[in-house]
């Protein structure tokens, strides 16, 4: 009887350890990373500054880690007619992974021409290079910006703005990564917001830096009487086709739309014309903040394991995702694993 008990106990222990190993693999512990959709290791603090930049007084919303250290800097460009503070959940999530995120409020008005907005965004970037360390020292000397590691992130028209910045700067200011969240380049092919980014020819738009594009399936859909907010032939799909590698592409399933990157509550009223979720946007904010933080960790943080988790465990994201796509590989991070897309 005792021999039978010992054998049974050994089998149970073996099963137990197998379950533990599988759980560790699912959670990312095997490569040292937990899910990027959980909050990062830093608590964050929000700063609100009104400062003269170029010819304007610009409202900057800045989110920083509350820890001593030197952190990469991210400039975040908001969408058309959206307040920069409407991305609190998303931006705070990114900052919690060790990034200083600076979101300027732009004066886009109702113009179909983005030329001035792109110029103003470049002015902000130049101001960041020259002045952000001094501006942050008011809060305390322990937080330092690492200006050798700059990244650009933009949503909707802001996505178009950051891609245009990459094209116009052409390496004159060193940018390490560019991310577009449901970027849009106008109403349709032939009616693009000036200056146009898309060429409608594959692999022709060269940003010279690693790029991430996050799209939404509902962005190209529309409510009755309203046009789609991210029309099919000028949205994330065309950006992915046109951009030269390395570029990664995540697409959120049909339950979320173009404006669901924004916070709930007051900011939700801004997006009534765009088809999206009728419930909370919290899951979308967790996903978007997580995948942005993971990509930034892989490109400016030299830590690919969070992004590796996002790629290989895409079915465990807070929202439903299509199989991620990629063109090319990130420099020095060839251990990234991308799932094969079913033909």
Automatic annotation (TrEMBL):
Annotated signal sequence range: 1-30
SUPFAM superfamilies named among the record's database cross-references: alpha/beta-Hydrolases (SSF53474)
Domain of life: Eukaryota
Family matches, as InterPro entries: AB_hydrolase_fold (IPR029058), Chlorophyllase-like (IPR017395)
The keyword Signal is annotated on this UniProt entry: yes
Pfam families xref list: Chlorophyllase
Keyword Translocase: no
Keywords assigned by UniProt, alphabetized: Signal
PANTHER family reported for this sequence: CHLOROPHYLLASE-2, CHLOROPHYLLASE-2, CHLOROPLASTIC
The protein's name: Chlorophyllase
Organism whose genome encodes this protein: Sphagnum jensenii
């Amino acid at each position: 009887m005792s021999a039978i008990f010992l054998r049974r106990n050994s089998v149970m222990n073996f099963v137990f350890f197998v379950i533990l190993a599988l759980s560790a693999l699912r959670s990312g512990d095997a490569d040292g990373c937990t899910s990027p959709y959980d909050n990062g290791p830093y608590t964050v603090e929000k700063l609100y500054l009104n400062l003269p930049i170029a010819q304007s007084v610009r409202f900057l919303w800045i989110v920083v880690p509350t820890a001593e250290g030197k952190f990469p800097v991210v400039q975040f460009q908001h969408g058309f007619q959206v307040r920069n503070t409407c991305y609190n959940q998303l931006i705070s999530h990114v900052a919690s992974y060790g990034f200083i995120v600076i979101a300027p409020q732009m004066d886009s008005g109702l113009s179909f021409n983005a030329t001035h907005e792109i110029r103003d965004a470049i002015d902000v970037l130049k101001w960041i290079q020259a002045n952000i360390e001094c501006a942050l020292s008011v809060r305390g000397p322990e937080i330092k910006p690492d200006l050798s590691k700059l990244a650009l992130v933009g949503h909707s028209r802001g996505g178009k703005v950051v891609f245009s910045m990459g094209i116009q700067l052409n390496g004159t200011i060193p940018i390490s990564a560019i991310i577009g969240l449901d970027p849009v380049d106008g109403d349709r092919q032939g009616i693009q917001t000036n200056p146009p980014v898309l060429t409608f020819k594959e692999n022709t738009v060269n940003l010279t830096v690693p790029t991430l594009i996050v799209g939404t399936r509902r962005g190209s859909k529309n409510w009755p009487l309203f046009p789609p907010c991210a029309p099919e032939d000028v949205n994330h799909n065309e950006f992915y086709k046109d951009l030269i590698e390395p570029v990664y592409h995540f697409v959120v399933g049909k339950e979320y739309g173009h404006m669901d990157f924004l916070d709930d509550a007051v900011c939700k009223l801004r997006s009534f014309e765009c088809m999206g979720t009728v419930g909370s946007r919290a899951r979308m904010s967790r996903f978007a903040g997580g995948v942005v933080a993971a990509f930034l960790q892989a490109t400016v943080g030299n830590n690919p394991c969070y992004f590796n988790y996002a790629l290989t465990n895409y079915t465990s994201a807070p929202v439903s995702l299509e199989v991620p796509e990629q063109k090319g590989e990130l420099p020095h991070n060839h251990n990234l694993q991308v799932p094969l897309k079913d033909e």
